[in-house]
User: What shape does this take?
Amino acid sequence: AATDGEGRFVVTRVCRAPLRIQAGFSSVREATGTLQAQGGDRDVQVVLGADGVHLSYASLIGRPLPIEGLDTLPQARGTLLCLFDWQQRPSRNMVIDLARRAEEFTRWDVAVVGVQTVKVDRNEFDKWIRGQHIPFPVRMMEAHDEQTRLAWGIQSLPWLILADRTRIVVAEGYQLAQIEERIDRIGDGER
Assistant: This one.
C-alpha cells in the first residue's frame, strides 16, 4: 500500500468483512502491531508493539435523531443533546455548564436535553438533577450497551449532538465551542 499526501496508508479494494491489519518495521515483536477491523473502516490506527480492535462509530450528521420522546419538546430552531454519565466528573461539569447557560440557549432558540447513557440508581440520579437545578429535560437511555453507543456515534462522554428544527443532526462532538459555532447556521440548509 502507498501513503497519501499526509503520510497515511491508503488500502483500497478490501472486502467488507472482518480483517486483521499488521504493521511493523522489523521481525522484532515490539516493532509490530496488529488491529482487528472491518473492511471499509476509516482512520484506523495500528500501534506498534500492541494488539487492538478498531471500533467504528457511526456519525449521525445528516441523519435524524434516534431518540424517542423528542416530539414532546417545545418546537425550537435547534435541539442540543448532551449524552453523559453523571458518575463521571467531565459529564457532570458539562451538564452543570449547560444549566448555567440555559438562558443563552433559550435566546438562541435551542432546546437543551440531557441523556444519561449509563444505567444508574434512578433515585440518586434524580436527586442529583434536582440538587443542581438542571432547567432542561433529562432522559435516561433505555439500552446501555456498546452497540447503542456505537449507533449513537458516542466516542467519549460527555457527547454533544446538535440537530436542526426538523431533528436532522448538523454537528456532534465533545467540545461545546465547536457545537456553538454551528448554532448560528441552523436553518441555513448547511450541514
User: Anything to note?
Assistant: The CA atoms of residues 15 and 39 lie 5 Å apart. The chain has a mean pLDDT of 83. The first strand starts at residue 2 and ends at 3. The longest helix spans residues 89-100.
